[in-house]
Design a protein that fits this description.
Strand content: 5-15%
Helix content: 55-70%
Structural class: mainly alpha
Largest sheet: 2 strands, antiparallel
Strand order of the largest sheet: 1-2
Distance between the termini: 50 Å
Number of helices: 19
Shape: elongated
């Protein structure tokens, strides 16, 4: 059996959906984790060498700095395999990274600084930084997809800003709106959650075994270790958490996962609404040559992309929700339950990415059925009971709501019935004229203007 043959993969993210998550492989794989561990270790060694208060770890020459950075930048799958081979002996994944770097610098001018690799660090100093970098990089891919689908929905909002549509509340005909306005609401909701995601700067720590710089100060009591660590942390685009236990407590991760879940939930809401619009005939779907909708009903064109998206968003939220609830909990200084759980961050991201791409694919198949929208509006003249009774209230007529309720509730009302009713009202001529000219398709308020806000 070939390794990672899609037909033999346990997870659909490595099997059926493997091609849809290619950009996450370099991030959330074992290779991606080890690669970032090496990057953090190299950055820490470079920072130590740059500190004049550590004479035993002399400053790097330009060539040495370049050579050290090359270990991180040029880290390959073969290098990752070498680390895993070392781990077979150490039975410790982070220590294997330390030994790998020492092996790489052996026989070079960097060799004399070998004991400053992983100097005063606990494994979690390296791991928390690496996990934060994985999330930072994975988020770039996910946010790009989120932006793409949000922009596509916003573009549809602009294109359909003036297309009148019967709104439905509780599944029943309600005051008309425009299709563009309904789509604009979704785009605005998604962008709001995107802003919340973007506000999060993941915290990180490099403060030793129990978060106090104990070992650091035992060797160099006069070094400003907090400042030195902060430089490394901020150099990776993260923020320093000064108060930690052995682990960085993962509250920032939980905030990120919760924020992504909220974005996903808005998209689930959208997927379901579009699915409903398709079932109502408001949208047709472009057919794909050779594609089959049903194994027994040849006529069917199913909204499979929105269904796929909804299902995968549910899976993503299940994983991200578990991560957000579990990770901030650790027995005293730490336990290892987070270690195995953190290896599944890419699962949550992967299902989310598959889902977003499915929604985007589904949007590309939609074709507006304006005739069906117009037909639905013309079949529901009773929705004009709202503006008529509102004008009647304005001019002080008795029992306007009750009179329209008696006329319209639970029955279909034609244009002729509504016009006859308005014609019999003692209204100012301007109000009468406006109501007589009104149709369900023109009674849309500020919908078109509002659609332009996204």
């Amino acid at each position: 059996m070939a390794y990672l043959d899609m037909l033999c993969a346990v997870s659909p993210l490595d099997g059926r959906y493997g091609s849809k998550v290619e950009e996450l492989r370099d991030v959330f794989s074992e290779y991606g984790l080890v690669k970032r561990r090496v990057a953090v270790e190299c950055a820490w060694l470079a920072a130590l060498c740059a500190s004049p208060e550590l004479p035993e770890c002399p400053a790097l020459t330009a060539d040495e700095a370049k050579a050290l950075q090359a270990i991180a930048d040029g880290f390959s799958v073969a290098d990752a395999q070498r680390v895993k081979d070392i781990e077979k002996t150490t039975n410790h994944d982070v220590k294997a990274v330390e030994y790998f770097i020492k092996e790489k610098i052996k026989g070079t001018s960097l060799e004399g600084r070998g004991e400053f690799v992983h100097f005063s660090c606990t494994s979690e100093d390296i791991n928390n930084m690496s996990h934060a970098l994985m999330l930072r990089d994975g988020l770039k891919a996910l946010r790009a997809a989120q932006n793409e689908v949000t922009d596509a929905i916003a573009a549809m909002a602009h294109a359909f800003a003036a297309v009148p549509m019967l709104a439905h509340t509780h599944g029943q005909p309600a005051s008309p709106t425009t299709l563009g306005k309904e789509l604009a609401v979704v785009a605005a909701r998604l962008r709001r959650q995107q802003d919340e995601i973007d506000r999060i700067v993941l915290p990180a720590k490099m403060n030793g075994a129990v978060g106090n710089f104990n070992a650091h100060l035992s060797a160099y009591p006069d070094v400003d270790w907090e400042a030195l660590a902060r430089g490394v942390i901020e150099g990776f685009g993260l923020r320093q958490n000064r108060l930690t236990i052995q682990i960085e407590p993962h509250d920032g991760m939980a905030e990120l996962f919760d924020a992504i879940q909220r974005w996903n939930t808005v998209l689930i809401d959208f997927d379901r609404d579009v699915w409903t619009y398709v079932s109502m005939g408001y949208f047709k779907q472009k057919t794909v040559k050779g594609e089959i909708g049903s194994s027994t009903m040849p006529h069917k064109v199913n909204p499979i992309d929105f269904e796929n998206s909804e299902g995968n968003l549910g899976l993503a939220n299940a994983m991200l929700g578990f991560l957000a609830r579990k990770l901030p909990i650790s027995r005293m200084q730490r336990d290892l339950t987070d270690s195995t759980v953190l290896r599944n961050m890419g699962v949550g991201f992967g299902y989310a990415l598959v889902a977003v791409k499915s929604t985007l694919k589904g949007l590309g198949k939609l074709q507006l059925n304006q005739d069906r929208l117009a037909e639905d509006l013309d079949h529901n003249w009773e929705v004009l009971a709202e503006p008529i009774q509102t004008v009647m209230r304005k001019v002080g007529m008795a029992n306007p709501y009750e009179r329209l309720k008696e006329l319209t509730r639970g029955r279909r009302v034609t244009a002729e019935i509504m016009k006859e009713f308005v014609g019999g009202l003692e209204l100012p001529e301007a109000d009468r004229k406006r109501l007589l000219e009104m149709t369900p398709a023109t009674y849309v308020g500020m919908a078109e203007k509002l659609a332009a806000l996204v």
